[in-house]
Amino acid sequence: MRKTTAVVAAAFLSMPFVPFVPLASAADAAQTPPMGWSSRTLGCSVSETSVRQAADALAPLAPLGYRYVIIDDCWLSAQRDGGALKPDATRFPGGIAALADYVHGKGLKLGLSLSAGTKACSGGGAGSYRNEAADAEQVKGWGADYVKYDWCSVPTADFPGQNVQQIAQTLYPRMRQALGDGVAFAMNNEDGSTVPWLWGKDAGATTWRTNVYNRPIPDAYANMVDIWETNQLRAEYAGRGSWADPDLIQAGRGGMTETEYRTQFTLWAVGAAPLILQADPAKAPPAIVANPKVIAIDQDPLGAHGTLVRTDGWYHVLAKPLQNGDRAIVLFNESDRAATISTSLGRSRYRVENLWTGAVASSEGELAAQVPAHAALLYRVSESREQAPPLVTFEADPPAFLGDDRPSVLEPGRSADLVTRVTNTGATGRLRDVEVTAAVPEGWQVSARTPATKARLDAGETFTVTWAVTPPAAAEPKNYELAFTQGGQSAVAVVTVARTPGPGRTYLSDAAWTSAKNYFGPVEKDTSNGERAAGDGRPLTIEGVTYAKGLGTHAPADIEYYTGGRCTTVEFQAGIDDEVGALGSADFEVWADGGRVAHSGVLTGAMPARTVTAPIEGARFVRLVATNGGDNATSDHADFADATITCS
């Protein structure tokens, strides 16, 4: 086994940053973004057995491009063996070489994590600092095809006068050069302090991390979107052979909906990102992770990173050029309500294929679709005279204005109007015998108030149907889905059933809110906020006065009620709960529809309760808001004591 001598180590330490020129086979390894599986979810419970099981489950996906089985930390022993890396004997008793042989026998490739510092990021294993050449030679000898190079326990004191980027530009190329021919190299600086997008390509990195928002990526929609937005800011630096890496694919872990997982996969594909699964490959949903046409967008040989055609913060259009001249187009609705998103394709005739549904249509230049909340639609667009039906935009309960992300509200036992719209967007031919049908939950009533059929729909024309929809009088307040169909297409309207408070004066803790957001723990009814599970609060107490009724929150908090234009006044005693002593501060506000109508001013834990009275006449929605008092969120136990609403 080859070991690095002191002379070689000293030479490495003095090396300046030199751009890496990939060898032919190393370049081949990076022609498309890496795909595979990472053991990150297993943490330090990873073992030889679990990695073999993952390889077994990943092997059927290999024809789609999933090749790398990556052991993410906790595989190394804390001590070297005669200066050499040593696998953890308990977790990997058979050694890494035998495991690599097993993985290779499945037609897959093995990945290992190493650290540029003195220790691994997890598990207490040895780092590769000053051992880069020997460690690279050793893992290659074992059969490693991929190295994820972490940034942990880096001895910055050894580099006086240098910032983190400069140190990284010394340490990362050392390992890259030592690995050399044919090993994929993933630069993994999770906090972004080394700004790898500025120099990763020149350093020979196969991938470089862009996720500086959370480390690692959480299995949650809002965090995933923030990470995607950060990744888009690095698009100009990515390209064939060196890919922007926004982190692992979450599908199958359970923290997001199927729609949200499909959105992540779509955004990663159009961004030419690595498609590395975090869930057990056996649990990753095939309908999402094994769609060959979507994977082809990610793996397109041109290697372009998709960019934003336009965005307004909620609604996004992205485009990615493909090697054969086609384009991938994404319509992404980040908001909480379905919305129609459109873009111009140019002056020609186009074949438009929805890669998630397989539907093919034609268009004379416009692409438009109603995109469900949190969804991303992916299309492959090509100039073509192919005979296909014209593209149809089918909308159910479209929002009244751009940016409206609240579902429509229906009251139990009351009829309300919803509309559907069918538009001949493609304009390549006439639609005939257009018919729209509706399906509602059991016990609901729905009927068309205007004709639901139309004999023909010419290019560019829209057909609108108004529907009378009535929830049953006993309908539970929550969200419901109403399904509409037309010509094989479906559109779903998500509506909220809500009740207004009854006539007279009602305690708000006895009324049903439509939404409630709170900093720590849930909003509590008739107790203070305990910061953890529901029901863990104490009696509401402000400056020694105890209140039997009210809402206990931790600022920032936001509680919304549906009032339907039938209420006049909200009143409460605002104050910081005594359980935090003199600490804590918050401003208590009342919002009626889009405007603030009253607030308390900043109150602290050393102040008595203050009466807040708010006029809300005519408002459809009312929100009680506790904002941060201007310092931090610590101890901000904000009580809306004796909170009442008066309605007709």
From TrEMBL:
Residues 1-26 form the signal peptide. It is an enzyme of class 3 (hydrolase). InterPro entries: A-galactase_NEW3, Aldolase_TIM, Galactose-bd-like_sf, GH, Glyco_hyd_98_carb-bd, Glyco_hydro_27, Glyco_hydro_27/36_CS, Glyco_hydro_b. This is Alpha-galactosidase. Its EC number is 3.2.1.22. Keywords: Disulfide bond, Glycosidase, Hydrolase, Signal. GO terms for biological process: carbohydrate metabolic process.
